[in-house]
Amino acid sequence: MPAENKTPALRLVLGGANSGKSRVAEQLIAATGRPRRYIATAQAWDDEIRAKIAQHRLQRGPDWTTVEAPLDLMEALAAAQPDEIVLLDCVTLWLSNLMMAERDIQTACAALCTALTQAPCPVIVVSNEVGQGITPDNAMARAFVKHQGHLNQDLARLAQEVIFVTAGIAQTLKGHAMSDWFWIRHGPTHEKNFTGWRDVPADLSDRALIDRLSAYLPPEAVVVSSDLTRSVTTADALAGGRTRLPHEADLREFHFGDWDGRHWSDVAQTDPQLSRDFWEKPGDIMAPNGESWNMAAARARPVVDRLTAAHNSIIAVAHFGIILTQVQRALDSSAYACLAHKIDNFSVTHLREDQGEWQVICINHLP
Questions:
Q1: Neighbouring-strand partners of residue 124
Q2: Which regions of the chain carry the CATH code 3.40.50.300?
């Protein structure tokens, strides 16, 4: 079953030069799980531009279909496939190419807007915000700023979502929908010792429970997991026909460092005060050669924010500690208070994000 992507039919990502807008757009596209098509408008006028194009290709990696369209964007957009998502980067260079080629700017921009509304798949357009500086001192530059400003306004009116990027930080200017996160703790491992980044399998023998849980979860949701085996296999078992996103290493369980694989009583003997503080004063207390609660929460947060920006419904199969860090975020409570909550294997913790505000729907629900 196709995933219900929050990604609208058209998104506009604006920003200044070297603001990080292309990186943000690429991250948003990667989060959709769709095949990726890159429509490039740059022309290799000199060695500097050729080197920059080569660097961008290398950074994007091999998972993109690249189409070079310095002038004919409409044809390139029409050739995209329905299951893909397109990154058009960028219309500023395209506009510059049009002016150099002495094309009719108004006609071309109107044709682009029409093509974007008729595109066969979602499109993210990258453009420069050029109107926040001083008025240029020559006629051609002033004409360019005028055309770019008018085009940006037209694109912003058409787009369901507009994002502005400054210093690598993305701010949503227009459009936002709620995201529902269904956090699932992986299947039981039957481990009696600390189990953090140590990779152990999950017991998935209770098919009736797994089927019941899968039926409870929204069929349109995408599925993501940490990269640890117990999380991956549980997510695979629950996925059914849902879209499966790439594993996210930053959704791993707490890193227990030297304690991993040891019994609780053994750790209490060798590190009596530290092991007590780890659970009674969670926050910056960290296991030897491991990490603290705050460190784990900090690494998970960008993943959650990125997927929240891309999807309405997310099933995330993860671990006790990481799920509780998200409960803390939703409740805006202390880490110690969150540790009072149980997170059982195969349980559902449902959290909702709306306009940057989080709320708890349920914690540790067993369907």
A1: 11, 87
A2: 10-174
Catalytic residue among 56, 176, 341, 350: 56
* 94 within 8 A of 70, measured Cβ to Cβ: yes
**Which residues of the chain does CATH 3.40.50.1240 include?**
179-365
Query: pLDDT digit string (tens) for 122-170?
Result: 999 999 998 887 777 788 889 999 999 999 999 999 998 899 999 988 8
Contact (CB, 8 A) for 184 and 316: yes
**Mean pLDDT of the region 266-292:** 97
The verdict on whether 190 is a catalytic residue reads no
Which CA distances in Å does 355 have to 177, 183, 203?
A: 7, 20, 38
Q: What CATH number has the domain spanning 10-174? A: 3.40.50.300
Task: Describe the crossing of helices 91-100 and 139-158 by its angle, rounded to 10 degrees.
Answer: 140
pTM of the model: 0.58
Q: Are 92 and 151 in contact (CB under 8 A)?
A: no
pLDDT band (50, 70, 90) for residue 3: very low
On average, the pLDDT of the chain sits at: 91
Question: In terms of CATH, what superfamily is 179-365?
Answer: Phosphoglycerate mutase-like (3.40.50.1240)
SS3 219: coil
